[in-house]
Write a structure and sequence with these properties.
The protein is an alpha/beta fold. The chain has ten helices and 14 strands. Helix 9 links the parallel strand 7 and strand 8 (296-299). The longest helix is centred in the N-terminal third of the chain and has 36 residues, at 63-98.
């Protein structure tokens, strides 16, 4: 986690420096000096708030709102910087094409300069106040080779990465589950990073358990890295009192019309070194005892398990972890590709893998990547 925090602090610092350098293109000289000083002061506070404040003030009623405002201002600066760079690139390109000579004495402000901060503020508000909670439903048809007739039309709903805490409340969890029930799935799967607040995890487990009767084939859960970062023993104890099927490198056999279908789930330990070494072992343990030609679903928090699913002939592997990047354009993540599989459906032959966009976040902002309920209908190939 230390490496992650260092990277995040570096990103915040980079945005701070970039935005201060570019302010001169949209603000007059005196206003520019004021904006630079204000941005530097605010951004230093933002680094503290996002890296330390979330844990330091965890559980306080106002901390989430404060950090929400910090994230929106940070995003406004980032968006403003991107808009200015695009405008400067267009202006430079126009000068090159028209052979217009450069005049160093000419005023350097961009045309309609105040539109840029206005647009940045609007987009920051949209992503932080609206899209972050603008839940969407996505439905997919999954052709499955050798699928027996009783399982045709079987619907699986997936939720992931709620990150219960400052930016996702118990009330939101209740509403999310109610909305999921309305999609009429046969089974619900939760692919990790649900329980992320030790003060509320037990209550969250009870809320989820209250919906088990709404899903004919039950609720299945695999751990994410954030469960391992919390009081794991308390989470395990809370789940043990429920009817939620917790899959830790194991599987469950379901029956329909006398025909079996298997649901397997793998763990995700926090240290990256351990994950690399144990990835194949976990999958082998989870699939042990399942007939080779059986129809099997694999639940995993980390999307790298999609490759393991393909290697073992799994028809559908469901994962999360990436939040879809939280920033996207036309369904494509705008953030650097930190993972091999970032968002949405990936297919190879008869094997499908899905990376859920997440239902919550640790950074409270989404743009072009809303939270989702993903539903998968199995059908004969």
């Amino acid at each position: 986690m230390l490496v992650f925090f260092v990277i995040l602090a570096g990103v915040l610092t980079g945005v701070m420096v970039l935005s201060v350098m570019l302010f001169r293109y949209v603000f007059a000289e005196k206003i520019c000096r004021f904006m630079c000083c204000a941005a530097l002061l605010f951004d230093i506070t933002a680094v503290f708030g996002l890296l330390i404040g979330r844990r330091l003030f965890a559980g306080s009623l106002w901390a989430g709102s404060v950090l929400q405002c910090i994230s929106m201002v940070f995003m406004a600066q980032l968006i403003l910087s991107v808009l200015i760079l695009l405008a400067l690139g267009i202006r430079k390109g126009y000068r090159v094409m028209t052979a217009e000579p450069f005049d160093g004495s000419r005023r350097r402000l961009l045309a309609h300069s105040m539109l840029y901060p206005a647009a940045a503020a609007a987009l920051a508000g949209y992503g932080g106040l609206y899209e972050r909670t603008a839940l969407v439903e996505r439905h997919y048809r999954i052709p499955v080779r050798d699928l027996a007739s009783p399982w045709a039309g079987f619907r699986v709903a997936q939720l992931s990465d709620a990150h219960l805490g400052l930016f996702f409340s118990l009330q939101q969890l209740q509403q999310l589950l109610e909305r999921t029930v309305a999609t009429k799935p046969d089974m619900l799967v939760l692919t990790g990073d649900i329980f992320d607040d030790d003060t509320q995890n037990a209550a969250a487990a009870r809320i989820i358990d209250g919906f088990t009767d709404s899903f004919p084939y039950g609720i299945f859960f695999c751990y994410g890295n954030h469960e391992h970062m919390r009081d794991m023993a308390a989470i395990q104890q809370a789940l043990s009192r429920t009817n939620i099927h917790v899959l830790v490198n194991e599987h469950v056999q379901l029956m329909r019309g006398g025909v079996p279908l298997y649901v397997a789930g793998v763990d995700y330990p926090v240290p990256r070194e351990s994950f690399d070494a144990l990835q194949d072992k976990y999958v082998s343990e989870a699939l042990a005892g399942i007939p080779e030609a059986a129809v099997t679903l694999l639940l995993a928090h980390h999307p790298d398990f999609i490759d393991n699913g393909r290697a073992h002939g799994i028809c559908l592997t469901l994962s999360g972890h990436t939040h879809g990047g939280q920033l996207g354009l036309f369904g494509v993540p705008l953030v650097p590709p930190l993972f091999k599989y970032m968002r949405g459906m990936y297919t190879a032959g008869n094997s499908y893998g899905y990376v859920h966009s997440g239902n919550g976040s640790w950074f409270p902002y989404r743009l072009g990547c809303p939270p989702e309920i993903a539903c998968f209908d199995l059908e004969k190939a």
